[in-house]
Amino acid sequence: MTSPQWNGTASVVNLAQLFKNKEIDLTSNCDLHKTKEKLLSVKGIGPCTTDMIALRCLREPNAYPKSDLILKRVHEKFNFDPEILAPWRSYAAIGLWKSFAQTLSRSSQKKRKK
After folding, report:
1. Is the peptide bond before 87 cis (omega within 30 degrees of 0)?
2. Which of 23, 26, 38, 108 is deepest in the core (most CB within 10 A)?
């Protein structure tokens, strides 16, 4: 018998359990380093998700999910280095998504190739 494949549902359940047991602080005044460490300890949550939570939930102005697909494509297309915008990289991420999500998404690239 094979073990079931890991899925995102289990990650959400495990994160909810941490939150319920008050083992993780997801407020904007949390210790960012400790919270990120705790998030990364949850199977299925990686650096991109952790940065996304820091950006959207924890209001971290320098969070930047550099492995996000749209942001990676912006970096490649424009040779963009987000480090030049520190400590305000989250604002750059939001602006880049807003500007390029439609044109750099996989579905829009497929449409243009037809």
Report:
1. yes
2. 38
- Amino acid (1-letter code) at residue 19: F
pLDDT digits (tens, 9 = 90+) for 88-101: 999 999 999 999 99
d(CA 88, CA 17): 32
DSSP state of 58: S
Cα separation values, 105 from 68, 80, 82, 111, Å? 11, 17, 19, 10
**Scanning the structure block, which residue is given the tokens 């300890």?**
41
Q: What's CA 1's distance to the chain center, in Å?
A: 34
Q: Which residues contact 86 (CB under 8 A, 6 or more apart)?
A: 62
pTM of the predicted model as reported, rounded to 2 decimal places: 0.79
Helix (H, G, I), strand (E, B) or coil at 53: helix
**Number of domains within the chain:** 2
Q: Please tell me what DSSP assigns to residue 31.
A: -
